[in-house]
């Protein structure tokens, strides 16, 4: 590729991004979507996706992925890895969107309000974070698909390595915790804590419930942690990080179904306490499973792929990454319906 | 050379000192064989203890995870109360109270 071709490719890429940014800015400025604004949720999602990227990828891998998304040419292997980075970013945004909704929903329920109308409104507002996650995931999937196509072409043509490309192997591989990953984990924890503080700070204060206790539902913690560890151990070391993905996703799915069945029994028995326990279980189990997926399983799978220990993530892992956040969103809506559905007490 | 001398460290040492410059090939081979067996024994011992520790840790984690799972299921089945479920209960009761006057 000549220097003119290179600059033309980069120019086109920059123009595309500029048009997209102007379109988004115009849409935001028009005020047409003001009802869909959740600043804390948006900030949480963007910073959380950055932190989740750092947990699974090194700074150099991220920089290469950005450069290649902007038009830099590369070998098939390098382009394939950059495509995987963008796919992982899309996955993280999608999972974090659902997790953000679940946390927001919990805070909306747990903090005191001036009436049920306000509580309902806050619960509905929490669903917007999933929408943000979906939009950000689509944005990240665009470079992922383009780079995957380029990698495929380069593989077929056998493109020679450009002189400028960094071909040094990753200095640290395997399970070692690199400074990038430590920064990623610290940033992720900080984003979660700050988002919760920001959200709680925006709600009326003085309620009797400490937010830490509201977010942690004991039985859900025990079942998600116990189930995930048991499944990961059962699958053995050969399955690698996929065992954790399957463990968290399957335990979360079982938790969602358990909660739903218990809630339905609660309706049949006309027992509010039983329905409330089931709703709390659904929200907490889904939150913890999503947290496990995004903070434990996904970064481990990312490292396996980037270190060359696997060709790519497992088909089942991909399925769980897509389906489980969607299920969580559906179950949150079901929980909302169960909470607001009036129920006549026996003899009432 | 007798079988006893092959397995006797004192005898080996004595011979090594006495014949420092000219160790018979049989004695040298015997000493090498003893060293190899000693090293192999130590390595087997280490590998066995590592594998044992790994199985022990794995068993402990497996037992712990099953206990956690069972405790969680029992607690949830027993409708154990938590601040979140209490709050949901309150909100649901508020909805019931709103609906009641209509009937």
Give an overview of the whole structure:
Chain A has twelve helices and no strands. By secondary structure, chain A is mostly helical. Chain A folds into two domains: 35-209, no CATH class; 216-348, no CATH class. The model of chain A has no long low-confidence stretch (mean pLDDT 81). With 103 residues, chain B is mainly α. Chain B has one domain. The relative contact order of chain B is 0.05. The interface between A and B is large, with 46 and 36 residues.
SSE ordering of chain B: HHHH
| Count of individual beta strands of chain B | 0
Secondary structural class of chain A:
mainly alpha
Largest sheet of chain A: none
Helix content of chain B: over 70%
CA-based gyration radius of chain B:
37 Å
- H/E topology pattern of chain A: HHHHHHHHHHHH
Compile the SSE list and pairings.
The complex is a heterodimer of chains A (348) and B (103).
Chain A: H1 3-30, H2 39-56, H3 59-69, H4 76-110, H5 116-126, H6 128-157, H7 179-201, H8 211-215, H9 218-235, H10 242-269, H11 272-306, H12 315-340
Chain B: H1 3-7, H2 9-18, H3 25-77, H4 83-99
